[in-house]
Amino acid sequence: MKLITYKNGKNRSLGVLGCDDTVFDFSLAGLNFADMHEFIVKHKKSDLKKLKKFSKKSGGLKLKNSSKCPSITPRQDVICLGINYLEHAIESYKFKNIKFDGKREYAVYFSKRVNEATGDFGKIEPHFDLTQKLDYEAELAVIIGKDAKNVSADEAENYIFGYTILNDFSARDLQNNHKQWYFGKSLDTFTAIGPCIVTSDEIDTENLVIKCFVNGELRQNSNTSNMIFDKNFVISELSAGITLKAGSVISMGTPSGVGMGFTPPKFLKSGDKIECEIENIGKLTNFIR
Question: How many domains does the chain fold into?
Answer without folding.
Answer: 2
